[in-house]
Structure formats: C-alpha cells, structure tokens
Amino acid sequence: MTDSAILDRVTETIEVRRSADPSTSYVSKLLHDGQDKILKKVAEESAEVLLASKDGDKTHIVREMADLWFHCLVLLAHHNLGPNDVLDELRRREGMSGLDEKAARKTG
Ligand SMILES: N=c1c2ncn([C@@H]3O[C@H](COP(=O)(O)OP(=O)(O)OP(=O)(O)O)[C@@H](O)[C@H]3O)c2ncn1[C@@H]1O[C@H](COP(=O)(O)O)[C@@H](O)[C@H]1O
C-alpha cells in the first residue's frame, strides 16, 4: 500500500531529534554536526544509488534510494523545510511539459 505519510512521520521524528542527545541518536548527531556533514552523507548516498543502479538489483536500488531520501529529509529539516515543500513544487509542475519547465528556469 502506498503510504506517503511516512515522509511526514520521519520528518516529525527528525524534528524531535533536534533536541535529543547526539550520543543517543543518529539524526541528532547529524543535525548537531551541521550542514557539511549532512551534505557529505547526501553525496555518499547519491553515489551508492548510482552504484546500485549500475548493479541493477532492485532490492539494492530501493535500499540505497531509501538512504538517500532519508538524508534528503534531514537536509530539508536543516533548512526548516519539509517533504511537503518539495511535493508542492512537484504538484506545481504537474501537467507542465518538461521543456516548458526548462524554458521557465532560463528566463528566471
Ligand atoms: N530512516 C532512517 C535511516 N536510514 C538510514 N539511516 C542511517 O543512515 C546511515 C547510513 O549511512 P551509511 O550507509 O554510510 O552507514 P554508516 O557507515 O553507519 O554511516 P556513518 O556512521 O558513516 O554516517 C546508517 O547509520 C543508518 O542507520 C537512518 N537513520 C534513521 N532513520 C530514521 O530516523 C529515525 C530516528 O533515528 P535515530 O536518530 O537514530 O533515533 C529512525 O527511527 C528512522 O525512522
């Protein structure tokens, strides 16, 4: 069953972890370490997705993509943003041609 509410639930947990002891929580440590550490994890997990895709194993791809999405949620939280901000942007683009979106980016 599709359950996009999981994005909200993980985000709520990330928010709770903001004030937790970094020695007891991976998320708390990541947020405490700051943006560069989060960006490093996003880059590492992106590379893992690339390797999994080349490997072609679907289970591996899903696991690595979950790691990437999770770290992207932490990065969004670092900026006081959440998954709904990205979903709103995808909704805005819905029905728009990809070429129109590209042209809109060029014109600003
Ligand atoms: N979804 C996740 C999740 N996905 C991946 N990870 C962690 O992300 C890390 C992935 O990094 P790597 O694969 O490079 O593994 P690693 O070598 O252990 O990582 P590093 O220690 O080098 O950073 C692992 O430590 C995973 O445990 C996650 N950690 C937490 N969550 C969610 O966040 C919640 C809160 O977690 P805590 O803050 O740990 O309580 C959990 O209940 C989950 O819902």
Automatic annotation (TrEMBL):
Which biological process annotations from GO are given for this protein?
Answer: L-histidine biosynthetic process
Q: What is its EC number?
A: 3.6.1.31
Please give the Gene Ontology molecular function terms for this protein: ATP binding; phosphoribosyl-ATP diphosphatase activity
Q: Which Pfam families match?
A: PRA-PH
Question: This protein's superkingdom?
Answer: Bacteria
A GO CC term? Answer: cytoplasm
> Which InterPro entries does the entry mention?
HisE, PRib-ATP_PPHydrolase-like
Q: Does the keyword Cell membrane apply?
A: no
UniProt entry keywords in alphabetical sequence: Amino-acid biosynthesis, ATP-binding, Cytoplasm, Histidine biosynthesis, Hydrolase, Nucleotide-binding
Has UniProt tagged this entry with the keyword Plastid?
no
* Biological pathway: Amino-acid biosynthesis; L-histidine biosynthesis; L-histidine from 5-phospho-alpha-D-ribose 1-diphosphate: step 2/9
> Where does this protein reside within or beyond the cell?
Cytoplasm
Q: Which reaction does it catalyse?
A: 1-(5-phospho-beta-D-ribosyl)-ATP + H2O = 1-(5-phospho-beta-D-ribosyl)-5'-AMP + diphosphate + H(+)
**EC top class, as a word:** hydrolase
Q: Can you say what this protein is called? A: Phosphoribosyl-ATP pyrophosphatase
Which species is this UniProt entry from? Nitrosospira briensis
This protein's gene is called hisE
